[in-house]
Amino acid sequence: MTPVHSITRSIHLRGRPRGRFALGLSLLLALPALAAEEFPACRERLAAHALAQGIPPGLVEATVPALEQQQRVLELDQQQPEFIQTFAAYVDRRVSPERVSRGRQMLAKHGDFLADLQRRHGVPARYLVAFWGLETNYGGYLGNMPTLDSLATLACDPRRATFFTREFVNALRLMDRESLEAEHMVGSWAGAVGHTQFMPSSYLRYAVDGDGDGKIDLWRSERDALASGANFLKALGWQPGLRWGRLVRLPPDFDYRWAGRDQSAPLASWSSRGVLRANGGPLPGTDVTAALLVPAGHAGPAFLVYDNFDVIMRWNQSQSYALSVGLLADRLAGAPPADYGDPETPPLPIAELKHAQQALLDRGLDPGPLDGVLGSRTRAALRAFQLEVRLPADGYPDAATLNALRADAAE
To answer: DSSP H helical segments within 140-238, as ranges?
Structure first.
């Protein structure tokens, strides 16, 4: 009898475990996530936790013993494109002429349905199609990783064990609710599924029946996926009538201390600082607040982003992803292509950024984890350093900033 079967049989026959088993179960539930090489023990923990969360014992018995660790998932988790590509390369690949052309075809194909979704949820068609395009290239690639295996692998990785343990249980709950087979549960390496790549928790809470067949199938129904995306964005706080943001032009003497998502100001204030539309025209005279982003530093493009940009970030916390959604939506609506920098420029090596983070820390500035990732805390520390040495305080590790950090460390 396998350990998983022992657990489920005890709960099923007695209602709740007793004696030494009760102690063992409590210890399993209290254990932190196990290292990847301890996957069998972690698998038992997941079984115990799923049962404690009310997942039917039969479903646990049918799925958990067959779970396999996916080494490829752990590798991909360390190679997310937001962290290893320049902004220009990221956008060039995702807002490509082919994706724009295909997206306009999807707008035409689902025109009436998308218009109805906008009336009901307030989300314009171009944004729903842009999310669809970025997530799966309009259904061209839904992922081929076994969802339960992927989630279990990440649940057994100590870094984000709590989140992925919860998603693993929700995947089982979804299987139970929708009568899905494990073989049907395939998607991204991180456990997202369907045309719009919903995590299991989002599928359970926000997915809706868009085609009226009485089922919710984000894999096979484009309308279910689009309707679910609209429902999700509305729940996240989408503001009808407000765009995501816009590409802007900055004056030569712009003070980059004003940049960052935490520096919101009315459009009138940005106008007074010399910020213009990308075409050189004045900013709108509407009573809207915006924050300025310079994802590639002062030498790259600049964007004013509005409240709906924050909504996009709640869908996916990558700033590059959120900007790409907005830019693709604009292109689908007829905006011309723009220059976001040379996509062939190599990214800053992770090891070099780690050295920069260490140099910042040595100077008394907190860059957050020394992980080689250009996150918000690293950007803030870089901005503080740049102010100290009188460089453009854009929070970006350009050559001048890195050279100044090296010189400072050598003193």
So the answer is: 147-155, 161-178, 200-206, 222-236
